[in-house]
Amino acid sequence: MLVGYARCSTADQNLYLQQDALSQAGCERIFDDIISGARTERPGLAAALDFARSGDVLVVWRLDRLGRSLPHLLEVVGALEQRGVGFRSLTEAIDTTTSGGKLVFHLFGALAEFERNLIRERTNAGLAAARARGRIGGRRPTMTGEKLEAAKKLLADGTPPRDVARVVGVSIPTLYRWLPASRDTASAASARGQ
Predict the structure, then answer these.
(1) pLDDT tens across 144-158, in order?
(2) What domain range includes position 176?
């Protein structure tokens, strides 16, 4: 069975062109959404995916009607393939039920993976260059030198760790992480009932 899916982004647009093309292509059932492609929750798409059974083919008018991005499109079509459901895009003439269609789609997948690897390489190169200039990534530590000294002094005076953490403005785990030896001091303070 051919199962159609149509989507337009706003209520100002209409689905007639897509629905007509899907009907002419032989779709027996057509699901639709009037929602932005950026939205992850698309009830019509979810219903179409749930309706499609092994041996069926999900048909769209154009690739961008199904996926928000190439990785998302590959994810959806990959999930269909695992369930034995084919995919067809009318405008791009891609049909994963044919050898040529599978090849084209796998080329898309290879290109998406290549793009992800390039992004990863550029990110790592940028981080390495920043480290070479003395910059370290990540958040700034919440425990400063001043806070550390104040925490040590308060703990030495017998202040309970919970109060010390509140006074210096850090969480208890952060306090313990910065003051490994303070666990013994804190335990002793707790034993004294402070």
Answers:
(1) 889 999 999 999 999
(2) 145-191
Write down the pTM of the prediction.
Answer: 0.57
Secondary structure (DSSP) of the chain: -EEEEEEESSTTS-SHHHHHHHHHTT-SEEEEEES-TT-S--HHHHHHHHH--TT-EEEESSGGGT-SSHHHHHHHHHHHHHTT-EEEETTTTEETTSHHHHHHHHHHHHHHHHHHHHHHHHHHHHHHHHHHTT---SPPPS--HHHHHHHHHHHHTT--HHHHHHHHT--HHHHHHH-TTHHHHHHHHHHTT-
In whole angstroms, give the CA distance from residue 84 to residue 107.
Answer: 20
- pLDDT digit string, tens, across residues 122-138: 888 888 888 888 877 77
Is 9 among the catalytic positions? yes
Q: Are 69 and 161 members of one domain?
A: no
Final residue belonging to a domain, choices 108, 137, 171: 108
